[in-house]
Amino acid sequence: MELIYTIEISPYDYAGSEYEYPNSSLTDSAEEWDRFWRECLSEKNLENLKNIRKGSYLVDVPSIGDKELEEIIKNELKEVD
Known about the structure:
This protein has two helices and two strands.
């Protein structure tokens, strides 16, 4: 067993446009949910984030680069204003 530090990056918090989300469960369509997640994040230049498995919104914290971290923090602070 391995413990990894993750952060949840919800696609709904980063997409400015509306994307069609898969009309099926994660279990049935992990690949489609993964594509949806990546499309939403690409608007904020977060396409380099790597989720821990296809269809998951969890990202391994040590894999987050400085550019991505800056965008995530800006987005989180926007909600505080």
